[in-house]
Amino acid sequence: MKRRSTLVALASLPAMAQPGRPLRIVVPYAPGGASDIATRLLAPELHKRLGQAVVVDNRPGADGNIGSAEVASASDGHTLLMGSVGTHVINPLLARRLPYDAVKDFAPVSLVATVPLVLVVNPAVAQRLGIRRLADLVLAAAAARPGRLHIASGGNGTATHLAGELFKRLSQTYLLHFPYRSTMSAQQDVIAGNMDLMFDHLPAALPQIRAGRLLPLAVTSARRSPSLPELPTVEEAGGALLRGYEASAWIGLFAPANLAAEPLARLQRDTVAALADPALRERMTARGLLVHGSGAAGLAALMAAETAKWSRVVQLSGVKVDR
Questions:
Q1: CA gap 91, 323 in Å, rounded
Q2: Which regions form coiled coils (predicted)?
Q3: 146 and 157 share a domain?
């Protein structure tokens, strides 16, 4: 009778309050990227507040669609998604068929961080072409050598690709695009000199920049990054030609839409509280992330604004993907 009473009591608890049951956060990308970095930094803080283990589970594939679809259909009450502008804005704009609905299948928890991209060039290429700043790339290189400079990305339709498309459209330059299967693969080929340049996620690019393997020209955010305060924004460095340029990626925590109201509300409160912790914010900033804790409403509003923005870029650039 006592055991039965205990089982009944456990069954009545909110899903995320069941003792001994770890919370799993699915990262729909490979380890080492911005989403993975942010999740692994946030997980210990959520553990402190929720009182249960938090496991980070990388499920890469199909530009984030595989991991996102898994969480969308999860019903165990202990599975979350660290989504992104890719999974919740760009993929729905580009894919003919998605295995999930970015709005109906998820409940926003909170925006976690925005992720500036950084325009980086292979140092040997930069030296050979006399590229020391963004103006050199636009005026002396890209405009004078249309199609001769090769720009890599993490794949067709990714944030690293669309940032380049927006740059090309505003600067009126032509860079030959080469999509890779992942951003890390693209970065490795820029470092090796097989590609000339790329828009990379700042958290992933920072160690290579500090080691001198990549030359940064500008960040894509509206403001300079605290991680590289001496580096101008694309808008600053590009002047009138690139006025209004902004192409930051972002990372947000989502729950499946079927999560009960009580554990969802608690998760939202605890996530916002965790992101307000000064030590966590300092660790994230040091890795190139701009920390937010805007809650569910802020994340939902950002999704709507970003959908309107990137749908225009997709339309004008004619970007297409095979998925």
A1: 9
A2: none
A3: yes
Q: Give domain status of residue 190, yes or no.
A: yes
Residue 224's contacts (CB-CB under 8 Å, 6 or more residues apart) are 231, 232, 233, 236
Which of 242, 259, 293 is the C-terminal boundary of a domain? 242
Amino acid code (one letter) for 160: T
**Whole-angstrom Cα distance, residue 175 to residue 165?**
9
| pLDDT number for residue 140 | 64
**257 and 275 together in one domain:** yes
State the residue for tokens 């002047």: 239
Render pLDDT for 98-112 as a digit per residue (tens, 0 to 9).
999 999 999 999 999
Q: Per the structure block, which two tokens stand in for 18?
A: 């069941």
Strand order across the beta sheet in which 106-115 lies: 54-58, 23-27, 79-84, 249-256, 106-115, 290-291
Strand order in the sheet with 117-121: 176-179, 150-153, 197-201, 117-121, 215-219
Residue-range definition of the domain harbouring residue 172: 117-242
Question: Which residues lie below 8 Å from residue 114, measured CB to CB, with a gap of 6+?
Answer: 221, 248, 249, 250, 251, 289, 290, 292
Could you tell me if 237 and 132 lie in one domain? Answer: yes
Length of the chain counted residue by residue? 323
Q: Does residue 150 sit in helix, strand or coil?
A: strand
- Beta-bridge mates of residue 290: 114
Q: Nearest 5°: phi and psi at 136? A: -65, -40
Residues 132 and 184 both lie in one domain:
yes
Are 216 and 120 in contact by the 8 Å Cβ rule? The answer is yes
Q: Look up the pTM and report it.
A: 0.83
Q: The CATH number of the domain where 227 resides is what?
A: 3.40.190.10
Number of structural domains the chain divides into? 2
